[in-house]
Automatic annotation (TrEMBL):
GO BP terms, alphabetized: axon guidance; brain development
Protein name: Cyclin-dependent kinase 5 activator 2b
Keyword flag Translocase: no
Species assigned in the record: Clupea harengus (Atlantic herring)
UniProt keywords, alphabetically: Kinase, Transferase
GO MF term list: cyclin-dependent protein serine/threonine kinase activator activity; kinase activity; protein kinase binding
GO cellular component: cytoplasm; growth cone; protein kinase 5 complex
Record's compositionally biased regions (Polar residues): 1-15
UniProt family annotation: Belongs to the cyclin-dependent kinase 5 activator family.
Region (Disordered): 1-30, 72-102
InterPro entries (UniProt xref): CDK5_activator (IPR004944), Cyclin-like_sf (IPR036915)
Amino acid sequence: MGTILSLSPTSQKTTIVVDGPEPNEKSLKKHSVLESALSLKRFVTSSARRNIGKKVNPDPQQLNNENLKKAQHLSPNRESVPVPAVPSQDPPLTPSQSGKKVISVQKQPSNLSLVSPRRVIVQASTGELLLCLGEFFCRRCNKIKGLNPNDIIVWFRNVDRTLLLQGWQDQGFITPASLVFVYLICRETVTDNVCDRGELQGIFLSCLYMAYSYMGNEISYPITPFMVEGNRDTFWDLALGIIDNISDKMLQINIDPHVFTEVFQELKGEGETKDAKGSDLDR
């Protein structure tokens, strides 16, 4: 066997001849089929690699057309099956297109309007309210002869002065607010059955002790300035009776400004009633 290499100077082609048995036609066809198959495989593989990673988004309209074509090929004897279509985003229907009536509801004005409570301003000095408190006692305890409004004022001021002089308090207790609170306790405690001055003074001092204990600036107060002739049992009986009867009202006047204003007006009205009666007698 030998190999002959021949070069053609005109065609610039290289021809390689291998000595050996001559290939038959069948072998040549086999080689050509294998080469074409390999080239096709390489082409398909390269095409598949290029298409990897590409996301295919089907067209909704094309899917609908294909589904309709498939439905048309069905035989007439078979029941037609509805082919689902890809939903498309349609604009919202107007009230006329949907066939429904849209009723606009407007908020009607209410007959009940929110009205803020009327602001009441009550003005009175400490001296005026002290006199009004004395007038209340004279009107309530009309069975006590010779009772003067100044008697109530003197009893009140003596207790307050004693506590200041003995160092039980740093400032006086008598103010318009405290007078309103004292009036509330006395109004609920003192009855018109009292006919003795000493008895009235003992009841009034017990009312003062409860007012001082509840509204005073100090933590505690002595009971001696609030007792008459040292009768402790009577004093404590009256004090406990006030607690049992009007504890809720004492708390209410402290937290509700409307209640305080009503009691304030009532106390001031005690002096105005006296003035009205005096003017009527003068006429």
